[in-house]
Amino acid sequence: MLKVLFTVRILIILLSFVLFDSMAVFCYAVNETPIVITSQTLTVDSKNNTAVFEGGVVAKTGDIVIYSDKMEVSYSDVQGKITSIHASGKVRVHKEERAIFSEEAHYSGVEEKITFTGAPKVVDGENMISGSEIIYFIEDDRTVVRESRVIIKQTEE
Q: Regarding beta strands 82-95 and 142-146, do their DSSP bridges make them parallel or antiparallel, or are they unpaired?
C-alpha cells in the first residue's frame, strides 16, 4: 500500500513538472529562453493585439515542444506582454518522455492558469493521468483534474 501511495505521489510530482514546463512556453518568459513558433500561416492584427498561427503550429523552447493546429495569442498594447494563448486542434506538449495531449489548451495571464480540455491526458512512460479537464494554477503550483483516471505501472524492485 505504501508503495502505491509513493508511486501516486511521484506521478503527481511528474504531472506538476510537465504542466509547469508547458507553462514556460505559454508564458514566453522562463529563463529568457527564446521561443521559436512556426506555422503555415501567421495573421497579426495590431489593432486588436492578436496573432494567429495556423496550420501545423510548432512552438519550441529549450527541450519543450508544443504542437497544435491553431494558436491564438493576445497581448497587451503597452508592453506586448502575453495576456492569453489559446491552442486548439490536436494539442500536444512534449518534454523528454513526458507529454500532455488534449484538443484545446488555454493560458490566462489574468487568472494565471492553464486549462487543458477535450480528453486531456498526461503520459509519463507507462503512467497516465486523464480526465475531462486538467487545470494548472501557476501561482499556487496546484493542479486539478476533473473526472480523473490514473494508471500506474507497477515496477518490480
A: unpaired
